[in-house]
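Batch manifest, entry 17 of 40.
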Amino acid sequence: MLLTDHAKERVIKRLSKNRKLNRVYSSLFKFLRNAEKMQIHENVFAFTDGRKSLVCVPLRGAKLTVGEIREEVKEIGEAYECVFWDEGGFAKLTGPHRFLSEIPEGNYYFYINRRKKVLYIGKEPPLLAITLRPAKRKERTINGAVCKSPRKVLPE
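Output type: structure tokens
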């Protein structure tokens, strides 16, 4: 999952309270572990925990091996915001070659935006998070439990 600038600011404000890239994505991973996926429109999804909702759209990513990804990024010498989305996912601001050295061999979804200087590699298809907002009324039910107030914490 990649973040727009707006979504990154919302995650910093509502979840991480820290601007470091690895803290932003680790708080996002933690939020998504407890969230349910809901379809809002044809290509718009929301991940919600009953209090907050992360609104996302899918990106077109190709499924490649790590060797093929190295070929795609071999001419890049600049620092990119690189995101590895897996069980032990992480994000770094680094060169793609250095980033790829930390990723185990295998087949992954790959997405790159050269203009924004972001790179995504992961087991799941890439998503673009648009915003993190308070949950709407219909999004406040989690596993049958109703959260009447967005501030109320649901029982686990």
